[in-house]
Amino acid sequence: MACFYESGVKMKNYVLGVYEKSMPSTLCWVEKLRAAKKSGFDFIEMSIDETDEKLVRLDMGKEERIEIRAAMIDADLPIRSICLSGHRKYSLGHPDIAIRKRSLEIMQKAVWLAADLGIRIIQLAGYDVYYEQGTAETKAFFIKNLLICTEMAAKEGIFLGFETMETPFIDTVTKAMEYVELVNSPYLGVYPDSGNLTNASLLYRKDVVQDIKNGAGHIIAFHLKETIPGKYREIPFGTGHVDFSKIIQTAWRMGVRRYVAEFWYIGQKNWQEDLVYANQFQRKFFSKIETS
Questions:
Q1: Model pLDDT for residues 18-64, shown as the tens digit of each residue
Q2: pTM to 2 decimals?
Q3: What topology does CATH give the domain 17-290?
Q4: In the chain, where do the E strands start and end?
Q5: CA 214 – CA 174 distance, rounded (Å)
Q6: Hey, where are the domains in the chain?
Q7: Do 252 and 3 contact (CB within 8 A), yes or no?
């Protein structure tokens, strides 16, 4: 299946981005964007994690933001989503009011940054708390602040999507949908992680395909990540147990057209080859769909 504009120019009918942390952090934005484009990706997903190195991005001035926009033009490749894992440390449901205030500040600044850079989607970490013990109180705080976050995003036309995590709070699409339905906003959806879902399906002895289908109409993008039972990070594509073919076909039939290959640079010298491999590894699943 192909997609055409009226002019007759053939366009891809899906996009495949790449996670920023798949490349060395020492690279500047132009270098990262050029490397992603050379490897065949359509965009980069920016990371804003809990480290000071990444959180400082939220306070970038006008000139720095202009430089990033110029880098996207120079490389002819955009940044189109943010993985906002900074809420792991500064969580929306934290029992400390000062930390909850910081969590909302992070969210507001992330929304403004996204709006400035033309970013469409912010992926939210599905935690009420991470380093602390969850309680009925932390869940209540989480819900209250989630409503506020969704209003922030709605004002700027930015979509928020829950990542299905590696902790029991939100590790399935079904659990994420509890909060999506509660908030009931077009600006809050689910942004699942294929690896985390696969591990959760083993943990709960549930069908991963049915779990994905429980998010029908609310899945805004998909993380394509490899895992093995009990381990959630840094598993090379093709060496784990994720059934990418089945998961991508399921998401595709549900209308999902935005995907991100999530993997990590961990000091390997051949990281550029890993980018190319990851792109080719994932593209083959889409090729089968498009030619069927």
A1: 999 999 999 999 999 999 999 999 999 999 999 999 999 999 999 99
A2: 0.93
A3: TIM Barrel (3.20.20)
A4: 3-4, 10-11, 15-19, 43-48, 79-84, 121-125, 159-163, 188-190, 222-224, 258-261
A5: 6
A6: 17-290
A7: no
